[in-house]
Write a structure and sequence with these properties.
The chain crosses the membrane at residues 17-38, 50-72, 170-187, 233-251, 271-290, 302-319, 325-348, 360-382, 388-407. This protein has 430 residues and is mostly helical. It is 79% helix and 1% strand. It is built from 17 helices and two strands. The protein has a two-stranded antiparallel sheet with strand order 1-2. α10 (251-262) runs parallel beside α15.
Length: 430
């Protein structure tokens, strides 16, 4: 704890502001998320299937669109882009209580998910620029812990705000985003990085070309996509992330799907509550402790341990629904999440070329496709096979993800070694 406080006190003011903003955005997002199905069902009039399609589809569109959001983060001043995206989110949350037409609501939610995903990518890139490389694992881990605190508290705030007004969660979310937006505006001058000559420049694309010409901008975006498609390390590691998040991302969803089949409804609800609490407690209490120990040169070892925790946890979950065993299995499983999430950020940060960090984090954000895919895969397995088969299929999926990580790390190592001819030139000074 003393080490954590010392590290936080030593962070630049801009980084501390970003950490507080990340917590605020997590609070607002989860306050709204818990209420969203109710809003779509009652005032808007959607049925259960339509609600699922809308929420899942908006998540997928926002995730894919964040690749372009990362590109924009490389071309504009990142803090200005974050201020603009926060402004969009405030307008969206203020508009939602007033609109009840399904198509209009769908359009607004598409904008909200796109802005939220692009915000996450931009914040990742800005944080990586502002924090020295030796402290990034600690800062990313601390931010993830704070975001999980927001995820745990947000739904309670959302439920409490419903008592004040039917649109209470949206108004609460808008107020929280405004509170996060103000420090970005007031302390904007703190969001600087040192250029090579020691001069302070805006923490964004100081050397990026202007984006005023749409045709040139589109051409540049295609060029960035070509660079990323040609980066085998990025491709394989993103695939590994998709496979892994299929397993750990929708934990509560697939455990709910499983438990309602093997237990009575009341027992299932009680066990899901235990699982949710165990997951949140382990993440919040161990994320900084574990994440601060990650190093660039030992990432693959940590990813192997994290995958092992997933595998053992899944096997243990398949054995019994006894509460104590299930909680212990989920706690071990969650250690895998605690390791894998910051390790992915560190790897992407280590391979991203100068000036393309936002684009690379945007590509890495595609792993969230797995969050949407996971419940579909698990639902299919539970419908057509014995319930325990789901866990062993998830074991196979997460091991496949680990193998993609291995290939990605090998590709990164290979690209870091100069070809013999290039090495000869470097030695001879030619």
């Amino acid at each position: 704890m003393k080490d954590l406080l010392t590290m936080v006190r030593g962070l630049p003011p801009a980084v501390r502001i970003l950490l507080l903003c990340a917590t605020a955005r997590s609070l607002s997002f989860f306050a709204v998320l818990a209420y969203m199905p109710i809003f779509l069902h009652d005032p808007v009039g959607m049925n259960g299937a339509a609600i699922g399609y809308v929420l899942g589809g908006c998540l997928l569109v926002g995730t894919v669109a964040s690749v372009y959001g990362g590109y924009l983060a490389d071309r504009f001043t990142k803090v200005d882009l974050m201020i603009a995206l926060d402004g969009v989110l405030v307008l969206v949350y203020l508009a939602l209580p007033a609109v009840h037409q399904p198509l209009v609501v769908l359009a607004v939610l598409l904008v909200a998910n796109t802005a939220s995903s692009s915000m996450g990518v931009t914040a990742n890139a800005l944080l990586a620029e502002l924090v020295p490389s030796e402290h990034r694992a600690k800062v990313f881990s601390l931010r993830y812990s704070l975001q999980n605190i927001g995820a745990a508290v947000g739904p309670f705030l959302g439920v409490a705000s419903v008592a004040a007004s039917s649109g209470g969660p949206f108004l609460l979310a808008a107020a929280i985003i405004v509170a996060a937006l103000l420090p970005l505006i007031v302390f904007r001058r703190h969001f600087t990085v040192l250029a090579a000559d020691g001069a302070a420049v805006p923490a964004a694309s100081a050397d990026a070309p202007a984006a005023s010409d749409p045709e040139k901008s589109a051409e540049s975006f295609r060029a960035v996509l070509k660079v990323m498609r040609g980066d085998r390390a990025l491709t394989w590691f993103t695939l590994g992330g998709i496979f892994s998040i299929v397993v750990y991302g929708p934990l509560l969803t697939f455990m709910s799907q499983y438990l309602v089949l093997v237990e009575d409804r009341d027992t299932a609800y009680r066990l899901v509550a235990y699982i949710s609490a165990a997951n949140a407690i382990v993440v919040i209490s161990t994320q900084y402790l574990v994440g601060s120990r990650l190093k660039d040169n030992t990432l693959m070892r940590w990813l192997t341990w994290g995958t092992g925790a997933f595998v053992v946890g899944l096997v243990a979950m398949s054995l019994s629904t006894q509460a104590a065993l299930l909680v212990a299995a989920v706690a071990l499983f969650t250690l895998g999440e605690v390791i894998v999430v910051p390790a992915e950020y560190m790897f992407i940060d280590s391979i991203a070329p100068d000036g393309l960090r936002g684009s690379y984090f945007g590509a890495q954000n595609l792993v969230h496709i797995g969050v949407a895919v996971g419940p579909v895969v698990c639902g299919f397995l539970l419908q057509h096979f014995a319930p325990a088969v789901m866990f062993y299929a998830l074991v196979a999926i997460v091991i496949a993800g680990w193998w993609f990580y291995v290939i990605g790390c090998r590709a990164a190592a290979a690209s870091a070694v100069p070809a013999p001819a290039e090495a000869g030139k470097a030695v001879s000074g030619v």
